Amino acid sequence: MFGIDIFEIAVxxxxxxxxxxxLLVGNWTWERIVGEGEDPTLxxxxxxxxxxxxxxxxxxxxxxxxxxxxxxxxxxxFVESPELLFIPVGLVAIHYYxxxxxxxxxxxxxxxxxx
Length: 115
Fold this sequence. Notes:
The protein is of the alpha+beta class. The chain has one domain. It contains 4 helices and 2 strands, in the order H-E-E-H-H-H. It has a two-stranded antiparallel ribbon. Helix 2 runs antiparallel to helix 4. The mean pLDDT is 84.
């Protein structure tokens, strides 16, 4: 009616949101590589009269959740060019590597240090 195509706006918004999410993960990754960052953490909570809800996602799981959402938002792009999936998968792999290195150096999750 006014020359505004709501579909085009939605596609652009999805792309902008996905790029923002990938920039967030890129920042987390850079901080981990240079040794300044801690484990990425996502938390949410909602409390009301009927009860409450709380969720905490950390480390590589937080990265995978954010990357998965970005891939979902950009799915048509990845269908057209599946080789682009190496970027988000690589980001998750980098975080997995650093998390695994931390576990092996501290002995956590292997029954060591439980004295």
